[in-house]
Amino acid sequence: MALRGHQIRLLSKTAKLHCLLRVNGVNNFSSNTHVGPSAAVEKNPTGKISKASQKDTENYKYFDCVYVGGGIVGLASAYTAMRKFPFLESCVLEKEDKLAAHQSGNNSGVIHAGIYYVPGSLKAKLCVEGLRLAYEYCDANNVPYKKCGKLIVATQPDELPRLANLHERGLKNDVPDLKLIENEEGIREIEPNCRGLKALHSPHTGIVDWAEVSRSYGKNFEKSGGKIFLNHEVTGFRESGMTDDDFPVEISLKSQPYKIRTRYVITCTGLQSDKVAALSGGTPHPKIVPFRGEYLLLKKEKSDLVRGNIYPVPDPKFPFLGVHFTPRMNGDVWLGPNAVLAFKREGYKLFDFSLKEFSEAAAYSGLRKLVFKNVSYAFGELYRGVFISAQVKQLQRFVPELQLSDVTKGPAGVRAQALAPDGSLVDDFVFDSGTGSLSSRMLHVRNAPSPAATSSLAIARMVTDRASTLFDWKSYQ
Ligand SMILES: Cc1cc2nc3c(=O)[nH]c(=O)nc-3n(C[C@H](O)[C@H](O)[C@H](O)COP(=O)(O)OP(=O)(O)OC[C@H]3O[C@@H](n4cnc5c(N)ncnc54)[C@H](O)[C@@H]3O)c2cc1C
């Protein structure tokens, strides 16, 4: 059911009225006088309109906007939209029994400063803006973080030109107070146990628990009236078939006795984003390929080996930043991660395997091309995943004091890597509205590339702007 121009205008008027009522603190809603999208205002001479939720029945819950995915991008987007368009009754649907169960709760926990990204690119702008917004948010909401800084260290002469390029990029990206450290003495003043030829120092890079930030966005969303439903896995979108009202999208859920009807849907489903987009006719590409990143854990008594983050100079052929030393908010130090193709999208262990997902991935020409182009790299990463000593050897380039006996196997995260059919890694944001009659009501965030945790509030602003244009929310104000 496509919405016609006059319907949108009338819907806007309805919402405007709704907004005014809320702003004035007059909760003058009647449960029996819900006004639909068209002819709504005319049909209701009392001026009373009902909220979406007042239509709830045993079989259906009603919302103006539904966010699918309780990771940091979905939660930041829901929270941001709620602040800008408080009259929208919104909810977040998350399939797991907790928020931030996947990428947002299993990552390095770094607040990136925006050094790596192509100057002028969206990724660069969103990261630099995201860093500023993340610190402001954490300060305002008592979320603890540490600005422990970061060194990107060149240990080999052939890395020096790449380090110089990164310096130039960082300056063009306005990374605050970025400084080139010209010799080992300078490096050791910042990190006494680190060795190297030259380094870049970013004092404003920090660490935070991104799962805690996600939960905080969720809490603020709920405080503003939003609802969060855990254990709510979305399995389908279809037309509600309602002719007298404007909740055209019906969402089916796994293991829930009711369905959800809504005006608008925004999906931010990370590792499942291609599959969820396909539920409303999204394009088959890009596909998501899962890369597992395994960490090592530095033993407690050795955690003073590093003060802040120590990173290698990344290899530009790969999207990952390379194994690094990262202090955690609880005092631990994580080393890694490597990047190994996973045989299951949400498979956190080496032998996690899904025949269905593996067969789908193996049948994808893009993946076959990627593997073919990077066979030696892939085997190297797998080898380092199995043999800890190989990973420790890599890390000893930076901190020679590190010994095999200082580390144990640590946790793992799985990255949603979007892959094009030609085998190239998709580095851009990808939005999709699907096809068919519901496409004017859907916005799928198909790819929100890393560091999407750092950039979450900036991405959320972009998603909200896009939704308000696509769904004409601006005229509600
Ligand atoms: C190993 C690793 C290290 C990283 N390090 C950093 C870092 O240091 N700093 C940084 O800024 N970024 C880092 N990142 C990137 C960052 O973690 C991600 O970009 C970000 O968390 C993505 O958030 P998201 O909300 O898009 O995805 P997710 O956190 O994966 O959230 C998607 C959610 O959607 C839910 N979902 C999926 N399908 C459905 C469905 N059908 N119904 C309902 N719910 C559904 C999932 O359960 C999940 O909770 C790292 C990533 C990885 C993997």
From TrEMBL:
Domain FAD dependent oxidoreductase: residue ranges: 68-466
Pfam families per record: DAO
A molecular function GO annotation: (S)-2-hydroxyglutarate dehydrogenase activity
Cofactor(s) needed for function: FAD
Catalytic activity, reaction form: (S)-2-hydroxyglutarate + A = 2-oxoglutarate + AH2
InterPro entries per the UniProt record, alphabetical: FAD-dep_OxRdtase, FAD/NAD-bd_sf
Keywords from the named record: FAD, Flavoprotein, Oxidoreductase
Highest taxon of source: Eukaryota
Residues spanning the signal sequence: none
EC numbers, comma separated: 1.1.99.2
PANTHER family hit by this protein: L-2-HYDROXYGLUTARATE DEHYDROGENASE, MITOCHONDRIAL
Similarity comment: family membership: Belongs to the L2HGDH family.
Protein name: L-2-hydroxyglutarate dehydrogenase, mitochondrial
Provenance organism: Dimorphilus gyrociliatus
